[in-house]
Recover the amino acids of this structure.
């Protein structure tokens, strides 16, 4: 399985695991936001109909393919924006935990750990965005190739 | 269990998509609004007593309510775009498939259905905001400080 496919298949679960597994998140109060999956399914392209037959019977096939590709990207951006907010929220609660529960001498390291986890989450989301845009474009290209 | 308000949104969408005037020779490219996630963010939150031991319990409860609404707003925006997009494709189907005389009525019906769904999305968002606030009220009730 390619890395891209792994990212697409596991994105919500892996993201959640990445964010929740970091030791910097451990504290005496929990992060109230339990599951990043509330934000939905980022790889929108996988939910589209078969591009080989989608608009093959339409006289406006190329335009419809293009419109679908654009909508695919737009929805994906909205979903990933939600994941990004979720990531920031999770980090904010983790930082509060650092400040509140960790001995003063360790607060700096704790927050640095949170920052690293947040950065890692953001990088993960950015990679997913890049891949998803390619997938939407791939769907559009295949769709257009099958226009009459 | 699926919340009632969620079923009703799905029901409206399925009724809309099943209407005969929507039948055309090309299919909807988007197959499931579920890609936009779980509208009811408050239901996914942990127990409201999660900050009870914190000296900053009250602001943490407020922070959660604010973030809960922020996520609900983003999810609602996705649903809104989704239904707007599917409505656009239905109108294309009207233009392409119906005789010219019927195309106008077909598009008007799609517009009306889209408005119904938009209202439903708005109502669901408002209801979810209330759920976030209720979570916050319950959270604050557990605060010792």
């Amino acid at each position: 399985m390619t890395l891209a496919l792994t990212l697409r298949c596991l994105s919500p679960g892996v993201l959640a695991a990445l964010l929740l597994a970091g030791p910097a998140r451990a504290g005496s109060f929990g992060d109230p936001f339990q599951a990043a999956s509330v934000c939905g399914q980022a790889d929108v392209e996988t939910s589209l109909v078969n591009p080989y037959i989608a608009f093959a019977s339409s006289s406006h096939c190329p335009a419809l393919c293009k419109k679908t590709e654009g909508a695919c990207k737009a929805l994906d951006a909205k979903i990933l924006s939600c994941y990004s907010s979720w990531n920031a929220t999770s980090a904010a609660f983790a930082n509060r935990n650092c400040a509140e529960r960790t001995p003063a001498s360790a607060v700096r390291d704790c927050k640095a750990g949170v920052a690293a986890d947040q950065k890692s989450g953001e990088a993960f989301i950015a990679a997913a965005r890049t891949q998803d845009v390619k997938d939407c474009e791939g769907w559009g290209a295949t769709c257009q190739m099958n226009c009459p | 269990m699926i919340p009632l308000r969620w079923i009703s949104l799905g029901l409206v969408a399925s009724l809309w998509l099943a209407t005969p005037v929507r039948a055309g020779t090309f299919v909807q490219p988007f197959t499931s609004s579920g890609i936009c996630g779980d509208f009811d963010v408050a239901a996914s939150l942990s127990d409201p007593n999660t900050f009870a031991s914190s000296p900053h319990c009250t602001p943490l409860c407020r922070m959660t309510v604010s973030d809960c609404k922020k996520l609900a707003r983003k999810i609602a925006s996705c649903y809104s775009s989704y239904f707007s997009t599917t409505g656009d494709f239905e109108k294309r189907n009207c233009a392409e498939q119906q005789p010219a005389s019927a195309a106008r009525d077909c598009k008007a019906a799609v517009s009306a259905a889209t408005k119904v769904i938009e209202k439903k999305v708005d109502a669901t968002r408002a209801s979810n905001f209330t759920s976030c606030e209720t979570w916050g009220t319950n959270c604050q009730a557990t605060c010792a400080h």
About this structure: The longest helix of chain B spans residues 100-141. Chain B touches chain A through 40 residues (CB under 8 Å). The CA atoms of residues 48 and 135 of chain B lie 6 Å apart. Residues 52-145 of chain B form one domain.
